[in-house]
Each structure stands twice: as structure tokens, then as C-alpha cells.
Records
---
Amino acid sequence: MRIVSLLPSATEILALVGLEKYLVGVSHECDFPPSVRKLPAVTRSKIHGGLPSAEIDSLVREQLQTEQALYHLDMDLMEQLRPDLIVTQALCDVCAVAASEVDAAACHLPNNPQVINLEPMCLQEVFDTILEVGRVTGHQQQATTALAYLEGRVAGIRELSASIALDDRPRVAFLEWIDPLFNAGHWTPELIEYAGGIDCLGSKHQPSYSVNDDDLLAANPDVLFVALCGFNLQRTEQDLTLLNRIAGLAESPCASNRQLYYCDGNAYFSRPGPRLVDSLEIMASTLHPELFNAFTREKRARPFTLRTPS
């Protein structure tokens, strides 16, 4: 079996169910487990990641409006790799090669590879994709075993958080982009709920969408949580200073109570794969450290502060 993965979450799922040894190519963004970084990258982005966030957003919107592809698929390399299976997604054209391009490419490859599209909108659907990958590849038992472990961790969090009274559940504003502001939809509001919080911006099981400064202030969050899509900790830290421009945010409950946090959005929350369970644990230990004190410091978000405009 020869597998090409076109998105990081799929690569993580494949590794989880024991299929990493069959990977012959990955996307340019696949970086976990670290061993996959040595594999040939069959995609590249047309947008340079080092640009300011506002410029990245502008270029993405321009590309999507003109129906131009955000990613390039290296067909010469794909022909050399001769995959039997391509794992991709049709959920978001900003996240990976468009599904239509993948389907067209598969028709021109010598092995006529099978294409699996993973399109989860909630945590259960993420778990379903793990079983689907196991079924298609003949690794059902490995997938079932891995999923039982993940589900057990989720159940443990939910059992503890069920004891939290409604009045003790903080209102959480979760941002996956800062310039412009974007709330986090899909599975993120669900993770906040499971962790003992209330998503005050949310679009549960719906795509993320842009919000303005007034939306964020009107939400009156007790906690502001930032995990920027595709950005690691260092890149996120650069953008946190952009929040200082929001007049009134420094006086909001989340800032007054020092409940401002960020984490690695590239590794957690953004990817619909196994590490969403780690993301849930990060959220739980951030919102209720007294209840979820068993987690290591690596599963805690980092605090940050706002500068009051002079």
C-alpha cells in the first residue's frame, strides 16, 4: 500500500492507526509525528507564511473570490510516488488542495488511486474519520483500539466537568485569527463545553467566521483564548500585540481577571485529528485548573497580558 496524505490531520490519523510506514508523500504542512517531515512534500502554498496576518487574510480572500487555487499539487512527483490511496478533505479550501483538483489529479495518475475525503464538523465526526481510515485500509482493529483510548480520555474530562455548576462555567471567547478577528467554529465550541465553559462567540458545528471588535466586547468574555490557525507559539506571540488596538478590551472581565491565554494553534484545536483530545485537555486545565490538576504543564495554555492604551 502506498499512501499520500494531503493534510496534517490525516497524516496524524494514519500514524495513529499504524499506517505511517505506508506513507510515501505528505503535504508541505505535515509535521507530526516528526518522522513524517522526511517524506516528500507533494504540495506547496501560493501564500508565504511569513507575511503579516492581515496580508495573509487579504490574499486568501482574493484567491477564493477569483476561484484560484491556494495550493499547488506537484503532479510530476505524484506520478513518481504512484499512490494507491490519497487522503484529503473537502471541508475548507483554505486548509488544503481543493477536492476537485485532487479528484482530477487521481484520474490522471497511473494507479488510479482511491481518494478519501475527510470532512468532520464535530468531535464525533473526527472520531468517525479514524474508523473510516481504518476500514478503507484494513486496519479496523488498530483504529478501534486507538479510538477507544481517545474516547476514554474525553469521557474522563466530561465526567469531571459535569459537576461544574452553570454559574461556575466561564464565558469563553476563542479566536483562531486576530487580524481580522475570527472566532473558532466547527468542533471548538464543543470542546469548550466539554471542558466546563460556555462559548460566547460560537458557531457550534458551523464554519468559523469573522467578528469585529464590537462583537468581541459585546460577548463580555470571562476568558479570552487564542489559538491561531496554522501558527505556532512564536508566530502567535507576534500577533497577540495586535489585540492592544481594541479599545475597551483591557477593561473587559477577561483582562481584568487576568484570564487571557494562548497556545499552539498549529498543533492543537485547528487540526481535526487525534490531538483534538489534547486540545480538550488543554482547555479543561486552563478553565478549571483546580479540577484538572493532573495534567502536565505541557497541557496548559500560556497566559498573556494586554497593554492599556495610553
---
Amino acid sequence: MAKKKTRVILVDDHPLFREGLKSVIAADPTFRVVAEAGDGTEALPFIDELAPDLVVTDLSMPGLDGMGLSLEIKKRAPQTRVMVVSMYADVSHLAAAFKAGADAYIVKESAAGRLLEAMARVMAGEKYIDPAMSSVLAEEMAGAGGSGGGYDLLTRREQQIMRLLVEGLEVAEIADRCFISPKTVENHRTRIMKKLGLKKEAQLVRYAARIGIIDLDLWR
């Protein structure tokens, strides 16, 4: 009798990246992609209908992001395992992902080489952290990488607003994307700056680059 395949749902707002993940997964006959979605909101009906074994998701997406999706999955389908594949290679995002219920965290640059191993280990009941993050974790444990600690003091909404601010979006654009008023965005920005001990927007950008939220070279 053939072994039952592990049913996987892919969630990422970049179709080409999803195609890349599908091609990697196709190399292992024990896994089967049963659905894919562009964000968490689009993925939820598939999760409710299909009760997949594993969801592979990005963190930063429009609408319901990866952390929000992880929380929903753990409420709706606690038996479903969650693997985050993210561009962020910093401790703050790693910790937030696991706090939201993720079972694994891989950096996108590593996905081609480590995805299948991570999926197999997660389905075997293990937690998995990308080995590419070992130096980052070592620095954090040694106290040399503590510059991102303040990020964990922010609420999930404040973290979302911060990411959009440092990506260069105007207040009105953020308000439209988050379905809140510009005044609420301004209030969030004020609280973010206060919690992080920053006074200028340029400091916020440098802080975001230091903890791995953005690539500062893209701003030059």
C-alpha cells in the first residue's frame, strides 16, 4: 500500500516564488501541493476545506500576514504544521514567528537547498531553524546582537505599521492598506518611535536595517 502523501498549501504573494517552491517540492514524491494562495486571507478557506498537513508561508504579505495566518491555523486546524519561509534573517522575526505558532523558519535564500529537509523534519515532529541563522542566534545569545530587542515590545499592528513606514509608504497609503485612518497611523508611528527610543524617521530606517527588516542599500 502506497504511503499517504503529505498535503501542503503554499502561501506567498509572489507567484514566481511559489512556483519555485512547487518545483522543489515536486522532487520529493512524499509531498503534494494541494493549494496555493497569495496571502493569509485567501489561504484560510483552503485550510478550512482541506485540513492540510503543512502550510508553507511567507511572513510579510498584504492582508493577513504570515504571523496572523499562523495564529489562525493553530486555532482552526491545530494538527496542521506551519513553516515560515521569509526574507528576514533576524532574531526578532524568528521569535515572533515561533510565538505565533510556527514549527519551522527558513530564510528565502536557503529555500532551494533546505526546504525538503525542513519539511521532513517538521512532519516528523521536530522544530526546525535555518542553519543560516546560527551566527545571528549566537550573537544574540552572547549579547552582541541585542539591538533588535525593542522590536519585540511593539504590538503586531505596530510591527506591521513600522514595516510599511520603513518600506517608504506614505501615511495615507498605510491607512488605506490597513483599513485605518491616517490619524491612527500617526498615533501608531508616535508610539513606535517612543518604544524604540527614536526621534527621527531616518533613525527608524537605520534601526530596521540593523535588525534585518530592510536592506539599507536599497535606500541609497
